[in-house]
Amino acid sequence: MQREHARVKGFSRRAALLGGGQALLFSALVGRLYYLQITEADRYTMLAEDNRISLRLLPPPRGRIVDRHGVPIALNQLNYRAVLVSELTPDLGATLSSLENVLPISERERRRILREIRRKRSFVPVTIKENLDWDDVARIEVNAPSLPGVSIEVGQSRYYPFAEAAGHVLGYVAAVSEEEQGADPLLELPGFRIGKNGVEKTYDLALRGKAGSSHIEVDALGRVIRELERDEGQSGQELVLTIDSGLQDYIVHRLEGLSASAVVMDALSGEVLALVSTPGFDPNAFNKGLSEETWRDLVSNSRSPLINKSISGQYAPGSTFKMMVALAALEGGIVTPDQRFFCEGYVELGDSRFHCWKEKGHGSVDMVSALQQSCDVYFYEVARRTGIDRISEMARRFGMGTKLGIDIPSERDGLIPTRDWKLAVIGSSWQLGETLLAGIGQGYVLSTPLQLAVMTARLVNGGVAVEPHVTHDLVDGESALRRPDPAFPDLGISSASLAVVKKGMDAVANTPRGTAFRARINEKGKEMGGKTGTAQVRRISKWERESGVLKNRQRPWEERDHALFVGYAPYQNPRFVVSVVVEHGGGGSKVAAPVGRDILLETQRRIGGEGQTAVAGDEPARRDG
Amino acid sequence: MAVRRSDPSEMRLSEKFWQVSWSMILLLCLVAAVGFAMLYSAANGSWEPWAIRQAIRFAVGMVILLSVAVVDIRFWLRYAYVFYFVSLFLLAAVEIMGTIGMGAQRWLDLGLFQLQPSEIMKVTLVLALARYFHSIDSEDVGKITYLVVPLALILAPAGLVLRQPDLGTAILLLFGGGALFLLAGVRLWKFAFLFFGALAVIPVAWQFLHGYQKKRILVFLDPESDPLGAGYHIMQSKIALGSGGIFGKGFLQGSQSHLNFLPEKQTDFIFTMLAEEFGLVGGLGLIGLYLLLVVYGFAIALQSRSHFGRLAALGLTTTFFLYFFINIAMVTGLIPVVGVPLPLVSYGGTAMLTLMFSFGIIMGVYVHRDQRIGRRWASQVE
Predict the structure, then answer these.
(1) Residue A222: left if φ>0, alpha if ψ -120 to 50, beta else—which one?
(2) How many structural domains compose chain A?
(3) Contact between chains at B261 and A34 (C-beta distance less than 8 A)
């Protein structure tokens, strides 16, 4: 009994020890729970939310681009694509085979699909084919019972209905490149497109809109359980261009087959009605992703379809530059309009002989008839007397030699040479012979077709420094960000001088000896004025001139002259100006002037009836809505 | 005590039945009910497939508990070794023909149901040790030669279980058996000796651990070092617990659990789910229920007039304590993940039945608390 008592006592002691130990461990558990659920609760709550909620960006629809009449020229098209969710397909092989009966799938595509299905998790849709047409969609929907897991998804892709016609103005959209990645999270979305050229690039931010977002609850595998919150974002603003898409289209067809460019502009407002460069490219192709073949063709084509010649092409203006020479001389008081010079077909300066385009010479010419017949000898003489500095200064006032700031990227400067320029860039002093060459728009002088159009506009609008632009306004829901009415500065040229030059240009297309008389407009009230130009692209050697200059048609394409024309209409009260450059086209009067005539005629037919501010009053309904 | 206390060996069955501690039964039901609720939630608000089966098992377990409780305590003493060796045999059988489940050989397919011998071993080991220490003279406990047999009784099944491999059960067996050594009065310096001996053995034992066990221990030391790999489970468990806060996210509202960030939420990580949905309040509530059960166990052991009863009751209570301590410490990141379920709450058949069996023994000790059993009683009757 004693022994039993000791045993119980010992047991109780040890039980107390054990109980104490367990109590200790108990408090450890309680303390741990307190630590996790009270002290660290906030941190873990955040981590749990991070786990649970996944943020997805919703790309906003890109703003439309419409022309001056509201015709859409860049819009978003629904893009139907067939997708396959592999976890919904009991037998992948069978589904794919029955799909092949409905939708042709190449062996390569089939391999890609299988590869993607293996790589992605089973609930992630795999794209089978994009850009399905309605027939495909209908066939898939009808056969849906035999295609478990296959569904049609709708996305948006950019579509340019005018294709090649407006490519150079609009530019295109394409996938974001690595160096373009920036603060905007939209840029990181797979498949997101941004403007890469044209107005798509200039106004990319406004067109892009603001990203929406969707907070979705996901499980541990990333499978979407439900949407918790959705912010639709803000779609891009609508861009209204000054371009007339019909006119643009007309000109593109008129210039088909030529490597040429044409700019049509409102001489008073600077609104560009058409800006064409041929051959063009189809911006839709860039959106879908170019094939290597197409890309090679575009890049290696000697007529450079990717270059917007109307703002990036730089040409010797040839005789279209003569107005600048004439104005510089008149304004400088060097010659009077009536002062006559005798053209015997050439002038001599030192050892060199400077030829007129008319071998036999024009005889005695004054300023108006020199412009009318484009006499080179007259302008050699006037340029010699006026000097390069006055001529360059006048050309610059008319917008040549610098970018005009049109709202399309990749505009070039052109070149108006001065003595300082030559010393600095070429490294030698200015020669008098170079002044003579500049007098007929050859030598160092270079200009873009846009500059030629702006020059013409400033000549015929009373000497006002209009500036060109292609966008009318940005429509942002209710408010329209209207471009303010242009208040361009006066160039300070006497109206008498301008009148003389204009009289010469009127004569070019309306009097029998004018270089564009054969291309005149006969329609009453729509007659044009203008100036032709033929720019040599090579030097004619003395030997060649003696043996008879080859006709353009006899020379290889690259050595033929550029044909130029600048014009305006109606000549009594000019409103529209045009500039045409046909690369290696031959003579300005034969090739470029007829094109200019057709364009001016078409322009007047299309827009002639409109008031001065063509777009402003037209469509109040759209802006109200 | 309100009820008449006669010699338990002469009590009739109905009398014994009235001796059962119904408050303890209520406690068990409460704990099990928590389990049903959490299994219901784990199935996203459905009785299928876990909660309903768990409830049936609990009902069966309750019948077992009551049956075991009214059986003469001396029966368990007499056949303690038999049960032990049968379990050891089954454990060895698992080695030979056990089916592979959950990456470890733990189940024995008996045709009708699958048996997990390691679970049964937890009870029968305690009974065998209780019988051994009941039988020897208390002076002999001090002699090392008398400790060889009980040590072998522990190490044999522990070794087999470790081979399966089931580190959690091995630890339960070692510590549960160790508790009986402590209660039997083995000198504390011997435990210290063993403790330091074990420390010295750790580098050697490390070599025998499986790759995934090593990884678990390494990741335990720094779970955030590998949040998507081996540390994923424990990290997600801590996130679930922490985000539960004081009052939790609400029943069926645990985002971590229901969106499957939490692994094995119906078995080992069920406590995490409880604490995510009911917060600190819910977690402490369940721990409180467990604490009460442990207190009952201690009280029963201290009331028992037989050494076997004392040792068995407290040994099983300690095993039960170790069960939930290891599980909760594991899911809260206090100790490495070793794969021990939460007793009476985690989904699992054998565990539920063996636990109810051991509570049956504890209850039996309570019912027969006045039964005195001589030191040599078992060997005399045999």
Answers:
(1) left
(2) 1
(3) no
Tokens of B216: 């678990």
Contacts of B284 in chain A (CB under 8 A): 30, 33
pLDDT in tens, A527-574: 999 999 999 887 666 667 667 666 777 788 888 899 999 999 899 999
Taking CB atoms within 8 Å and a gap of at least 24, the contacts of B296-301 are B296/B21, B296/B23, B296/B24, B296/B27, B296/B362, B297/B362, B298/A15, B298/A19, B300/B21, B300/B362, B300/B363, B300/B365, B300/B366, B300/B369, B301/A15, B301/B365
Q: Which of A10, A22, A48 sits opposite B239 (nearest CB)?
A: A48
pLDDT for the residue numbered A612: 42
pLDDT of residue A394: 95
Single out the residue of A112, A131, A126 nearest to residue A84, CA to CA.
A126
What are B's interface residues with A at a Cβ cutoff of 8 A?
Answer: 138, 179, 182-185, 236, 238-246, 255-256, 259-261, 275, 279-280, 283-284, 287, 291, 294, 298, 301-302, 307, 310-311, 314, 318, 321, 325, 328-329, 332-334
A8, A45, A219 ranked by CB distance to B259: nearest: A219
- State both tokens at B304: 């028992």
The pLDDT, as a whole number, for residue A9 is 87
Q: Mean of the pLDDT values across residues A1-30?
A: 88
Tell me, yes or no, whether A408 lies in a domain.
Answer: no
Asked if the ipTM is above 0.85, the reply is: yes
Q: How far apart are CA B121 and CA B157, in angstroms?
A: 7
Domain ranges within chain B, ordered by starting residue: 11-381
Interface contact flag, A45 B242, Cβ < 8 Å: yes
Task: Answer whether B283 sits within 8 Å of A37, measured CB to CB.
Answer: yes
pLDDT of amino acid B1: 41
Q: Identify which of A58, A66, A65, A59 has the alpha carbon closest to the alpha carbon of residue A200.
A: A65
The verdict on a CB contact (< 8 Å) between A18 and B182 is yes
CB-based contact A506:A529 (threshold 8 Å):
yes
Residue A310 is assigned to a structural domain of this protein:
no
Q: CA-CA distances (angstroms) from residue A358 to A349, A355, A381, A592, B128?
A: 18, 8, 16, 19, 130
Query: Terminus-to-terminus CA distance in chain A, angstroms?
Result: 106
The pLDDT of residue A56: 73
Q: Check pLDDT > 80 for residue A597.
A: yes
Cis, bond preceding B49 (omega within 30 deg of 0): yes
Say which range, A419-428, A602-611, B185-194, B281-290, has the weakest mean pLDDT.
Answer: A602-611
* Residue A140 pLDDT grade (very low, low, confident, very high; cuts 50, 70, 90): confident
Fill in the DSSP letter of residue A124: S
The single residue listed with the structure tokens 């008592």 is A5
Is residue A546 domain-resident? no
Q: B266: helix, coil or strand?
A: coil
Q: Does A218 touch chain B (CB under 8 A)?
A: yes
pLDDT higher for A300 or B307? B307
pLDDT computed for residue A615 by the predictor: 42
Query: Number of helices (H) and strands (E), helices first, in chain B?
Result: 16, 3
Owning domain of residue A141: 86-148
Report helix, strand or coil for A304: coil
Low-confidence ranges of chain B (pLDDT < 50): 1-4, 100-105, 111-112
- Over 70: is that where the pLDDT of A610 sits? no
Q: Quickly state the pLDDT bin for A167 (edges 50, 70, 90).
A: confident
Residue A103 in any domain: the answer is yes
Q: Annotate B285-315 with DSSP letters as a single string.
A: HHHHHHHHHHHHHHHHHHH-SSHHHHHHHHH
CA distance A11 to B307: 9
d(CA A318, CA A440): 6
- Cis bond upstream, residue B341 (ω within 30): no
Residue B255 CA: distances (Å) to CA of A49, A216, A421, B232, B233: 8, 13, 74, 16, 15
As given in the structure block, the two tokens for residue A240 are 């209204």
